[in-house]
Amino acid sequence: MMKRLALCLFVLVVMAPFAWAARAPVDNLSKNPYVSALVIDADTGKTLFAENAEAKVYPASVLKLMDLYVILDRIEQGKLKLDEMVQVTPEASKTGGSQVYLDPKEQFSVEDLIYALMVQSANDAAVALATHIAGSKEGFVALMNQKAQELGMKSSSFHSVHGLPPSEGQLPDVTTARDLALLCRELAKRPEALKYTGTASKGFREDKFMMHNHNKLLGQVAGCDGFKTGYYQAAGFSIAATARKGGVRIIALVLGSKDRKVRDAKATELLAKGFTIVPPKPELLAADAAQRQVASAVGAGKAGAPTSTAKTTTGAKVEGAVAEQSSETAAAPKGDDGGWGKFFIGLGVGLGVFLVIFLVAGFLMKRRGRVHSKYKNRS
């Protein structure tokens, strides 16, 4: 019995490093109701409300707004085209968390992958775009940090293209509400940016896979057309939100909340607070009406597309209910999971091996006992 126990413990010790190797540990920064919050007038940059706006946080997938800024800047410079085809790399296809299940045999346009990046918060799309544009994730991260410095984001440091928890030996992405407000102001000046961030749902891979935006304020808060949510356990739930009405655009940041619903409620409350402080601008009402018409045309995506399965060109299927799982389910987060998915897979493998060895050892010892008894009875 002692030999069996020792053998089982040995198996678990051997398996443990593989289970834990996926992600490096990071300090848990989340608080209730949030770590920091900031509300600004997008047109003037004036601060309307601030609480710990300079506190450093992990942006998680809110970081993808910097991806979007770099991509749109490259398009504006003529160095990238929306209809340009992007070859999926093996590295991109292996990226975990929220994804659109890219396959190395596939190609997609830059625009298709931008929608995947903003609507589905697809980490695999982020890697595919980054590699296509800069040759590597590291090259694209350098572009992200360069643009951050140009915008005056002095307290921000990016180390990934997707915002997932840091891998072993990697530093976490860090930013502040104040820095993100600078980025959001720049994006708010670009109608094409709001076209992507304001899309609630859209078909991908010829509508075989439906993407749904994790920003639940879209369609719930009047005039909301952006920007982005983010979550992993140590980072908490964060959102960079914006809405425009009465000729006024308000930007609200709520970062590091322990609860998704609290985060969304606070963001909704702060946007409303902003609109009570800044008076309407009647001269811009016509522009708002035109913008709403554009948003209604492109924001809904193709909601009538089938949602049952997601298919790759290899014919593999991913059940729609799983494929569309939000990365922000408070009870059991599925998207930016901090490596827990890999941990539990490793743990499951270890326990499976443990069970097999236990059963085999028990069988052998039982058989040995019968044989011993048999010979003993004959003597």
Write a compact overview of the structure shown.
With 379 residues, this protein is of the alpha+beta class. The protein has twelve helices and eleven strands.
How does this model look, in words?
The chain is of the alpha+beta class. The chain has two domains: 1-22 and 339-379; 27-337, 3-Layer(aba) Sandwich (Beta-lactamase), CATH 3.40.710. Helices cover 44% and strands 16% of the residues. The protein has twelve helices and eleven strands. The strands form four sheets. It has a five-stranded antiparallel β-sheet, sandwiched between helices. It has a two-stranded antiparallel sheet with strand order 3-4. A two-stranded antiparallel ribbon has the order 5-6. Strand 5 (201-204) and strand 6 (209-212) form a beta hairpin. Helix 2 (64-76) packs across helix 6. The chain is globular, with a radius of gyration of 25 Å. The model is unreliable at 5-21, 298-343 and 371-379 (pLDDT under 50).
What's the architecture of the largest domain, going by CATH?
Answer: 3-Layer(aba) Sandwich
Order of helices and strands: HEEHEHEHHHHHEEEEEHHEEHH
Q: Please compute the radius of gyration using only Cα atoms.
A: 25 Å
Total helical elements = 12
Protein structure class:
alpha+beta
Indicate the CATH class of the largest domain: Alpha Beta
Overall tally of domains: 2
How widely separated are the two ends? 27 Å
CATH fold label of the largest domain: Beta-lactamase
Give the CA-based shape.
globular
Low-confidence stretches: 5-21, 298-343, 371-379
Q: What's the CATH H-level homologous superfamily of the largest domain? A: DD-peptidase/beta-lactamase superfamily
As a percent range, the share of strand residues is 15-25%
Record the strand order, biggest sheet: 2-1-9-8-7
